[in-house]
Structures are given as C-alpha cells and as structure tokens.
C-alpha cells in the first residue's frame, strides 16, 4: 500500500497561511504600513484602487533593503529580529519585512522597489503567486515601494466573498486610523482612486486624534496619566456628557500595538458608572506601556488580542486612573470641606432669649366646611357640576377613540387626526390581531396613565397595558417610513444652518444615505472636507439635536451594514422616530392619551416596535378571574 502523507508545495502552504493573516485588503494595508514603520519611515503614503482589490501601494522613506534582503523577505519564516524562541516574548516592533510578505505574495501579484540609504541603485522584483518573475537593479528613491495588485487573483473563492467596495474601504480606513493614532510622529496620507482621504502631518498625540476625528473632539477629551512599576498608562477619556449609544471611539494600545480587551473595557465602564445613562458608551484612547516579557501578542493571527501576565492589578490601576481623571474634571460630585463659602450653622446660646413673650399659635376656623355647596361670604368658592364635566369628557373621548363598530368594519368616520396619520383603508378586527389567536377589539372606555409610563384601558377581551414611548415610536416610524417610500416629506428650513463633521469612515457610507435622508426631510449641503451644512430638518423635529442624530444614523448604518434602499429607509425612519418619541415619565393629558391610542390602533403593527419590543400587553378577563380564585 502506497504512502498517503506528503509535504505541501511552498506555494500552497503560503496560500493556507495567507488565509489566517490576509483576510481582506485591509490586512495587506496593516502589514505593509507596520513594516514601513519598523523600517524607520517618517513619511508613509498609501494609494488604494477599487478598495484594495485592484491595487494597494505603500510608499515609505525607511531604511530600504539590499537585493538579498528583498529576495529573502518573501520566503516563509524570514525575519530580521527573531533568532531564538525567547525573542518572541520581547518584541518591541510590529514586524520587519518578512512575517506577512510570503502570505501576501502567495495570493497577489507583488512588485517591490527598494533602495537603501546611501546606495547608488536599488532593486526591483516581481513575485506572482509565490513565484519569482523578475529581479533587476532599479533607480528608485530611497526607502521601499510595495505594490500589491489583483489580490486573491489565484484564489477566486476568496475574492468572491469580499464585501462591497464601500465596506472594504471602511475596513482599510479603520486599520489606517489604528496605526495613525499610535504613531503621531510619522507623517501619513491615504488616497483612494486618486482622491485624498486623509493627510496627517507629524504632530503630537492629541493633535493626531484631532486630525483624524475632527477638531470638535478637542473639548470633549480629558487627559489620563498613571505610573506604576507594572504599567504606564496615558491617553484620553471622553467627558461623560459626550457618551453615546453608537459610534463611540474606543481604543486600547499596548506598546504601540492596537488591541481589543473586553476585560479592560469593563474597568473603564465601571469608572463611568452612574455618570452616563445605561447603554451609552464613552470615548477613550488609552495607551499602555509595559515590559514586553509580561505580555503575549501571539495568541491571535492578527495580534489584536493580547494576554497579560498581571491582568488583575492592571485592571485596578486603569479603573483608579480613569476615576481620578473624571473626579478632577468635576464629573464626579465631591464635597469640598475647605471652601470659604461654608454654611453658617448657628451655635446654641442658652443666654440668648427669643424675642416675644408668646409662642406662635395656629388659628382654626371651625365654621369652614369644604364640602358645603353654599360658600360663606369670606370663603367664596365657585360652584361646579362635576357630573356635567365627566359627561362632556366621555363625549369627547367617543369622538377620538374608535369603537367596536368602527374597528370591526372599516373606519370611515375617522377624526381629522386619524386621517392625517393613516391615509389608507383601515383593516378589520379580524385582520388586526395583536396576539396569536386573540382578536382584540377596542371599545370606548376611559384610560389612565400608570407611573407616567403605561396607558391602561379596557378592550372587549380584557385589559390592555400600552407602553406610551413605544406606542408613539411605532406611530412616528410608520409616518416617516411612508414619507420615505413615497418620497414625500415636509422639511422645515433652519434660520441658522448647523454644521456636522463626518470622519472619513463615516463619509464612505454617507452617499448611500443622502437620498433617503432628503426624502425624510433633511436638507444637506456638502461643504467639503467631510463637513455638511444642515439647511433643513424634518418637520416636527424642533428641539432635537440634529447633528447628533445624523451622526447616530451614520454610525448605525456602519454597524448594521444596511443593504438595499428599503432597509436603509426603515433604519432612518426608526432613528428619527426614536429621537422624537415621547419619553417614559412624561405626564400626558386625557386628550393626548386618546390621540395616542387612536393613532396606535390605526397602525399596521400595534404589537411590536421595529426593533422587536412589545408595545401592548393584554390581560384577558379569564386571566384576571384566575388571579382571584
């Protein structure tokens, strides 16, 4: 029987290794830029074509390579900094020329032009699919120029599963930002299809953050510093009032390397406990410096997960550092006992007598009767027939709330408010089912507000409890959804237009949203450089921070990866409705409750909000009777 185990050719082995290291064009950008930084480059230029699928070119002014080094750099396991196993645990650099180049060359067509400083000529070589095609002397500038063309050209299955150009380019920007934020002393620029996206000059750390995410962030960050024998922590954390539910800028860096660390993230969140609302996230840019021997960066192929030897003590140091920073900024209330404006507390003096000989007396008028219809001359009270008021109140309710006949058939006599909300035939009671196997038929009955959050009313089959915020959200959602789909929306022009600034990553998805944003009522003008002027807002959005709202919409689109116009339109409608819906805790008048219920009963979906949360809960008569058995 013949042997069946054999060694793989290097080209196939490199393709397998590339599957772990080179996942998408952004992985190529990460590896090449980190190599350039390790080569001592102070200027790095990145040119991208078609989101990296056609070309990723990285130009640096680093130390360059000799002809032998250039050829050896593409061999498997080639490196310039590891000579023994112990070196794996004392790395201070990202990697120099060898660790990922073999993987890149296995799945792309690579051209390298490089020249060492002081050398008369450099080297040019081409490698296609791990096969050396050409090598010669070249009159190139000092440094290195890596050109990676037609990524995954020889692995069509991998190329097929790449995302859209917008998605892939956002991933490239993400990797670019992570490297830029930890190397402020390096001048970096990024171009996509010959258009400059980012140009970051050499600067300090705070200025680099401003250059990447906008100067408006400058007033929102607090400096953090902590020194100990285990770790040195520096960077910035966001003020509590700038926390938001989506799109928070959260970065950890260890010895110049970006990392993800959920455990340390919990330390930061615990420091913000009771300072920000539940579900909101603060910004932070936190940099750790510690002995490389105490961490392991090789537990993940992309090195974004790092294992710490002293994880628990560092967690405590981080928590204390963030809390101290917030306390110094007066974000955490503190009692100052040294203040000059102290409260003057009187001291008891037994010799001091109270002025006056008599103590205060309470006068009681025994003849006053608050339940007596005929008021005394001194206490005139208006006579009022409360029975007439209640009858008038019930008459008004019947004009607003749909009764059983209106719901069972079709609401032909809808009030003007109802007709304004829904301009289509209303479904019959059999078509409108709130719960499985339960046909709920609204009747004209009083309702009341419970704990300023729920509306309680009676229906034919029992008692309904309605979340007022979610009910209003659903009503507004269907309104905005209809406006966007019909491309009709009322816009209110702003007297003083507001300016909203988007990051390069946010700007890549904005073209997909602009059309539906205009259909919803937004009027935006592109001012260039990622800035847009808000000239008009949807009607009824007065009092809403539209700059924050637009940023949240873009962040949600990036997080969810909306596909298709209908999905994008629904996402925008839901965001607008969420921003405008009445909050829990708001006291509603009887008329407001009536209109809210009437509008909800005319919605196409009265049971669940667009994000799947329950609007109406039913307590049937049978369930109520069983509670008293």
TrEMBL record:
Domain MutL C-terminal dimerisation: 446-588
InterPro entries according to UniProt: DNA_mismatch_repair_CS, DNA_mismatch_repair_MutL, DNA_mismatch_S5_2-like, HATPase_C_sf, MutL/Mlh/PMS, MutL/Mlh/Pms-like, MutL_C, MutL_C_dimsub
Domain annotation DNA mismatch repair protein S5: ranges: 209-327
Molecular-function annotations in GO: endonuclease activity
Protein family according to the UniProt entry: Belongs to the DNA mismatch repair MutL/HexB family.
Alphabetical list of HAMAP family matching this protein: DNA_mis_repair (MF_00149)
Protein name per UniProt: DNA mismatch repair protein MutL
